Amino acid sequence: MPYTLYSYPNNYRAxxxxxxxxYCGIDIELPAFKLGEDNKSDAFKAKAPLxxxxxxDTPDGPIWESHAIARYIARLRGxxxxxxxxxxDQALVDQWIDFSTTELEPARALWLYxxxxxxxxxxxxxxxxxxxxxxxxxxxxxxxxxxxxxxxNQITLADICICTALVEMYKQVFSPKYISQFPNVSxxxxxxxxQPEFASILGKIVFATKEKQAPKPKKDKKKGxKKGxKKGxKGSNKDKKKNNQEKKxxxxxxxxxSKKLPQTTMSLDASKKLFFNKSPINEKFFEQFWPxxxxxxxxxxxxxxxxxxxxxxxxxxxxLIGGYLQRAESCRKFAFGAxxxxxxxxxxxxxxxxxxxxFRGTDMLPEMKAHVSAEYYNWKKTDDRxxxxxxxxxxxxxxxKVLDRRYFK
Length: 409
What we know:
This protein is of the alpha+beta class. The protein has 15 helices and ten strands. It folds into three domains: 3-80, Glutaredoxin; 87-202, Glutathione S-transferase Yfyf (Class Pi), Chain A, domain 2, CATH 1.20.1050; 262-408, 2-Layer Sandwich (Alpha-Beta Plaits). It has helices at residues 12-24, 42-47, 66-75, 87-116, 123-143, 157-172, 176-179, 183-193, 196-202, 233-248, 268-275, 285-289, 314-326, 366-369, 385-393, and strands at 3-6, 28-29, 55-58, 61-64, 298-305, 335-343, 352-360, 377-382, 396-397, 400-408. Helix 4 (87-116) packs parallel to helix 13. The chain is globular, with a radius of gyration of 26 Å.
């Protein structure tokens, strides 16, 4: 049975597996695929319950999630050493792949998606994305000061994953002035894309001559209505005066969603202070909290990371939590959360990332839905009070022993 990869054209997530297949000498078929239609079919849902691409059909069954697919391809030809030549090198390959997942790709999405039309431009999010990208590139630039490749003396899956994530950025937003700060990264990038295995998939890459900007959100303008020509001069003057008055009026400010909620007697700020009024936390918090809880004005959601099997380096997994909480700043006034890493021990991966959130309202916050990484988690509303207490302060969760917990207050 041949290997079949389902994806839309030029998907950098699929290109990871395609380039790995070139190095391993493995043929992969790419049938025509229309996102939004083909992934909604019952046949595709049976392969990938999340209805996302890429998905790889293998003789043993389907595989979804891009890094799992790329690793599978790399393992088919262990003699090519795409996953490293030693146990230590294998860990380093995993380290850099996780670095791409947690540090580079979220910022990539936030910078590129408004340009590609996937989301509306937001100045604050754009600045945060550029800052995070710069931080990631500095790390890479420092590494390539003394190294030709990410791991060892040859291209590995780590180089493939990070290079493909950067391609669209070099083409769209890395202006010559900006990328000149990272000459070692560009040297490595050019080395990669000029390899036959990369070039056969990526084609010729034309670098940006200036940073492409996303279209700014359009402001609605109130248009005056035209009057019929049959009206006399007096009527026309009246209409003109009315239209001029309407133009002078300021457009009404949009009402924030929180203003439309029914009033509540519960104070989120007071609840946060109650939780932390003893060091490190108030262990009797929930005994005092539940009598004041307003289930018509607040709700709880649990979250679980969809790619837990890829969390194999503890400190990088911690960065996943830190990065998520940093980018949740817009939720500050309306949420109180906790995110955890669970597992057997810090030395025994994989780890599991999960969390709990108290939101204002009876549904998930619009700001949280717009979070650049929210789509990588499974969200579930809950009213299980014992489970909620465990998430906020328990040592053991359904995902395992709590190894690290961080609060969003």
